[in-house]
Amino acid sequence: MRRSIRCVAPLFLSTLCLLSTAPVRADVVASASAAASVASKSGGICGGLKGALSTIDYRFFVAGGVCAATSHGITTPVDVVKTRMQAEPMVYDKGMGNALASILKTDGPSALLGGLGPTVVGYGIEGAMKFGIYEVMKPVFAALLSDNKALAYVAASVVAGAVASLLLCPMEAARIRMVTDREYADASILSVLPKLVADGGVGSLFGGIWAMLSKQVPYTMAKQVSFDIVAGRLYAYLSNSKASAADLKWIVSISSAFVASLFACISSQPGDMILTETYKGKNSSGGFFGVVSEINKRGGVPAFFTGTGARIVHVGLIITSQLVIYDVVKQLLGLPATGSH
Fold first, then answer.
1. Over the range 165-180, which residues count as b (16 or more CB within 10 Å of their CB) and which as e?
2. Taking CA atoms, which of 71, 145, 191, 336 is between 20 and 30 Å from 246?
3. pLDDT digit string, tens, across residues 114-149
4. Is residue 44 part of a domain?
5. Is 146 contained in some domain?
């Protein structure tokens, strides 16, 4: 585990675009929060949701979709190595470097782009809903929970993660089968879904919903909440520094994203292992708890952390680039940077 964590340091360098100088419209966010707050206090969660929906801002959904599709797409090769290590631990048992060399030797460089189509499409939709719903629900829960920000953020992230999980299931089923099952290796995004349905019915696309929830809810909670809270604290701490406003945004975005990546990776690693085991080529019996039991029999708790080193690299790259891109796109669309308002 220590060796895995040492891999993280060099990851967070330069996948980033130019920071926008577009005017920040904090008034838009403030008005949405106020509308949700008033409606929540007068009509409970239904009233709060109605108030939030009446001022819904598509820009959060656009920024979330762009950042998730981009960050997951560019890290597909790392995800392929990680998924193979989880699906075949007896074959790829000598670390990430050896697993990469073995895949290149056996299947060629093109194997590292396995599942790229479902990854970009699936995570584009998932990111749009995850970030968008999270932003919509924050003021609703803040009003209902007497402005307890931390608890409101957690509640909003659970709702966002659950909705995103449901939408992501079919594409994640396709991605994992394309990476782990040679019968699906050459399938395209247009052919793999009908093939999955023909083999196991429509229900097979959602057979891993509990596994998906076990991964995505902790992942979303840790990522969104820690990013929000750490960014807010850093802005407060650095507000009197001599750094320029533009430099401050970069420092806060990258630092907060780095912290969020560590929380999200560790908290969701067992769920990620369960998800891979659920959707890989050999069908596991016994449903969700059957999969958990199978993994546990292979090596107890440590077995749930198989591939953690590769996943720290993968998730570190994804979340750091994703959250910085999210902030950049938000500002390009006229929204304030996370934690700055």
1. beebbbbbbbbbbbbb
2. 71
3. 989 999 999 999 999 999 999 988 888 888 887 788
4. yes
5. yes
